[in-house]
Amino acid sequence: MIEAYSDFDWCGDKVDRKSTFGYLYWFLNASISWCSKNQSVVALSSCEVEYISSSKVACQILWLESLLEELKMEYKRQVQLFVDNKSTISSAKSLVSHGRSKHIETKFHFLRDQVSKGKLELIYCYTKLQVIDGFTKSFKLERVKQLRNFLGLISIEHLD
């Protein structure tokens, strides 16, 4: 099964107020792809930035699925995407446009389309369990070590 984690740092750039988003794909007990970068648009809410991030993850999932099919690898078809924003999950599951989400550009509703087709399942993940946090925010050393251990990363100094 493919698992994906998506998170953001809303308005993290103090100059242009754009958010940083990150994602991680987990397959066969290993992280296989990850990214952290600034979004190209300024988000008006934390729900919007998470929705945009999750939409970008959904696009990448389609590419990853086609790669796995080309490699003749079998996997559970419904990808699980873990997000820590309940409003994003609600917006993606509901086909009704709400006042709080009508400002989100249409191109980002690809996420809603993938959820309604059953290709993607959005699962709420408590912020403290969100492993992608280290890609989008700064933390104290202890939290960085926890995230590093979960991802199976080791410090270079331990390679001696």
Brief descriptors of the model:
globular, Nucleotidyltransferase, domain 5, 160 residues, single chain, five-stranded mixed sheet, alpha/beta, 34% helix
Could you give a short description of this structure?
34% of the residues lie in helices and 22% in strands. By secondary structure, it is α/β, with parallel strands linked by helices.
**Low-confidence spans: pLDDT under 50, at least 5 residues?**
none
**What is the 3D shape?**
globular
Spell the H/E element sequence: EEEHEHHEHH
Structural class: alpha/beta
How much helicity do the residues have?
25-40%
Give the name of the CATH superfamily: Ribonuclease H-like superfamily/Ribonuclease H
| CATH class identity | Alpha Beta
What does the radius of gyration come to?
16 Å
Q: What is the spatial order of strands in the main beta sheet? A: 3-2-1-4-5
Named CATH topology: Nucleotidyltransferase, domain 5
Largest sheet: 5 strands, mixed
CATH architecture: 2-Layer Sandwich
Write down how many β-strands occur, each being a DSSP E stretch of 2 or more residues.
5
The end-to-end span amounts to 34 Å
- Bin the strand percentage: 15-25%
List the total number of helices. 5
Counting structural domains, the number is 1
Q: Which whole number gives the mean pLDDT? A: 77
